[in-house]
Design brief:
Elements lengths: L2 H15 L1 H8 L1 H22 L3 E6 L5 H9 L2 E5 L4 H7 L4 E4 L4 H6 L7 E4 L7 H25 L20 H8 L3 H12 L1 H14 L2 H6 L4 H31 L15 H28 L3 H11 L4 H9 L14 H12 L5 H26 L2 H5 L2
Parallel strand pairs: 1-2, 1-3
Antiparallel strand pairs: 3-4
Helix pairs in contact: 1-10, 1-12, 2-12, 3-9, 3-12, 9-12, 9-13, 10-12, 10-13, 10-14, 12-13, 12-17, 13-14, 13-16, 13-17
């Protein structure tokens, strides 16, 4: 039988028998997408619940016109608490509007009428309500100012030398990509999480158990041995990537995206592109993890090294969130970063460059081949077999 197939079958069976390997394959694809779905479901329900804003007002009789305007704009005005600042600080109310007793007098005299809006900017759940009330107050102020100018025979447009019209060319799909930009990072993390335990156990683990030396006594090329172990790692890594994609797409279909005025939909072709882009990273991650685990002196040291490697796929996501970059062809030549950019393009609904996808796949495959070559060289060293 082909020695690669023999080693592959042996390592795959051992990996499937290991509970840690199965947990990494089955648990991670559920945890990441479900956390994202729970977060956006909570935020979506909160946004939908904030469509009717309740505004406690102290001194509402001092400005009946303002109160009536707020109610006409959909703001529910209720009596304010006795201690507005304490109520807002405790979180009993989102905000409190204070209307002083001299409001009507200053308003009639054409002077700026003072208002106080007591808020707590450290509370994220009150942000949308506060913004909506401030917008309505600003609108009332602008309308009142325009009427005052008209009453004095002045065209209100003279106070607006610029008429800026915002033309939004973004699509609901692109807006959704801003919300779900973290999804590509979860997919890439799956490639590193799925095969981590198999890569560790089949190299450093076997050396500590003393089963690696008897295995090498058999007349099998070191390259075939490494490729067999690598293929077993690739199977579990790829399974994690595919499960992560499947669970993510199913979970996002149940998130109330209408609260954010966005739409997230992928076609069968988009799913195919996502798979094609992500699979080469599974090949590279498995090869790199196998080499690092072989180089490590012990099983614990291999675990420590591979746990550090998990941060590698998170770096492009952090970079793109801090410094948004326009997709360019040269990015495809950077392993992991190129896949991150291409995955985001698919989610945004942007047309993909076939050359970019091909370059990203070739670079990842070449890097994986180099890692396998280095791992095979390590297996030819006595220090690797007997410990360093």
């Amino acid at each position: 039988m082909n020695p690669i197939w023999v080693v592959f079958r042996k390592e795959l069976v051992d990996g499937l028998r290991d509970r840690r390997s199965l947990l990494s394959v089955l648990l991670f694809p559920l945890v990441g997408p479900l956390l994202v779905a729970m977060m956006f479901t909570y935020l979506g329900q909160r946004e939908l619940g904030k469509q009717e804003v309740e505004l406690p007002v102290v001194g509402r009789d001092n400005a009946p016109g303002l109160v009536r305007s707020l109610e006409d704009d959909g703001i529910q005005v209720v009596p304010g608490p006795d201690d507005p600042e304490a109520a807002v600080r405790r979180g009993d109310v989102d905000m409190v509007l204070l209307i002083p007793s001299d409001f009507a007098e200053r308003f009639r005299d054409g002077k700026p009428a003072p208002l106080e809006l007591v808020v707590d900017h450290s509370r994220d759940d009150a942000h949308s309500s506060v913004v909506r009330v401030k917008q309505r107050l600003g609108l009332y102020s602008a309308r009142t100012g325009a009427l005052r100018l008209l009453a004095r025979g002045v065209n209100p447009q003279l106070a607006e030398p610029l008429a800026v019209t915002e033309v939004d060319v973004s699509t609901p799909q692109k807006l959704a990509a801003r919300l779900f930009g973290i999804i590509p990072m979860f997919v890439l993390l799956g490639a590193f999480m799925g095969g981590m335990y198999v890569a560790t156990d089949s190299t450093a683990g076997e050396r500590e158990r003393g089963s690696l030396e008897p295995l090498l006594i058999n007349p099998i090329p070191r390259g075939a041995l490494v490729v067999g172990k690598w293929l077993a790692t690739v199977v579990l890594s790829t399974s994690t990537v595919l499960l992560t994609l499947a669970v993510t797409l199913v979970v996002l279909s149940h998130v109330p995206l209408e609260a954010f005025n966005v739409r997230f939909s992928v076609t069968a072709g988009d799913v195919g592109w996502l798979v094609v882009i992500a699979i080469p990273i599974a090949l590279l991650a498995s090869a790199a993890q196998l080499g690092v685990a072989t180089f490590a002196r012990s099983y614990k040291e291999a675990q420590a090294y591979l746990s550090y490697m998990i941060f590698v796929p998170t770096l492009p996501g952090v970079l793109l969130s801090v410094v948004p970059l326009q997709s360019e062809l040269w990015m495809a030549a950077v392993p992991i970063f190129g896949q991150q950019v291409l995955l985001i393009d698919v989610i945004r609904g942007e047309p993909l460059s076939a050359a970019g996808v091909l370059i990203a796949a070739l670079v990842a495959t070449v890097c994986a081949s180099l890692c396998l070559w280095g791992t095979a060289a390590l297996f030819r060293r006595e220090q690797t077999i007997f410990g360093r």
